[in-house]
TrEMBL record:
One Pfam family cited in the UniProt record for this chain: FAD_binding_3
Organism annotation: Microbacterium yannicii
Protein name: FAD-dependent monooxygenase
Superkingdom to which the source organism belongs: Bacteria
UniProt cross-references to InterPro entries, sorted A to Z: FAD-bd, FAD/NAD-bd_sf, FAD_aromatic-hydroxylase
Keyword terms, alphabetized: Monooxygenase, Oxidoreductase
Amino acid sequence: MRSHRILVVGAGIAGAAAGALLGRSGHDVTVVERSAGVRSSGSPVDVRGPALDVVRGLGLEAAVREHDTGADTLALIDRDGRVFTTIRIRSDPLDIEIARVDLAAVLTTAAQDVADVRFDDTFEMLSPHAGGVDVRFASGGEERFDLVVGADGQNSATRRALWEPAATASTLSGGAKSGAGGRGGPAAARQRSPRLAIATVPLPLTIDDPRVVTMYNEPGRSLTVHPAGGRPGVAFIFRTEGAPRDRAAQVGLLRERYASTGWRAHEFLEALDDAEDLYFDSVRRVDAQPWWRGRVVLLGDAASSLTILGEGSSMALLGARALDGALRDGSDLSAALTAYEAQHAPVVRRAQGGAALGAEFLVPGSRAALGIRNLLARAMRGI
């Protein structure tokens, strides 16, 4: 196996896992993360099935399982907070549900043992060419890498630079053409939206049962309280045409959409004033075509995502393992990256196949659809 000098952009679940796996395989790995530390926002995530095997392979199962939230039941409630049915949310007792920040922290610690992990920095310019990728960092330095892995999430700056029409000649610095050691054909990224937005915020709530996630619905919106292993939080998921980027506009949209909502909506909206960590984003499906371009490859949500509906964390772990394995087995970078995409893309698309049904379950769009969802939920309790 040839050892490569690799830059991983992003220290989320995909990037940290890639850093740990690639570093252990003997590559010279640098991971950059634009945040000053591991980001704490977002909902709890699942590690299950083959993704659990990735964690085991890294020797991290005990560390990850230590942070399991313990939640195993979803309780659906009416406007007054009365439970009308419950659903088991773990198909296998070995599945792990863990706060995103905890999983990222465990993986980042593992990456730091075998890679140079730099927080509060990212790339400012990527200049791919036949001999590698010249990278200018926001911190001011310049370095050359054999391969750049864009693991910087749904809103990937790596993908914007090389896959999306907004890319400019100055950003690409002459290296995005197929003749510069790259893959032939046009690179593009499609983004489709199921017209959902999600906002999550940790709140100091009293939780009756730490194993139970509680969800209330009205047509087009839901409120969910998650015990999150002792760090409870609230999720607002609702149908909308777009998600503003400004914090004040985000809070304003939440107040508008949930002003007349029942249960504890008024209480949760008031708490937004003092909330320090509000996560807010639209739910979008991202499809990069292809996943690699010359010496730059996308991983995790940067390549293909559907935010909360596509098993993103498990897919990130599996994708990192697929990329690591392909680089170990491939005779050259092009062959390895082709093998990585051929192996992992079908897995991701199968996982995303039920996204539309998932959206309808979480946020039925009409009163009739909500009624049907509730009937199905009652039936599921008896299965």
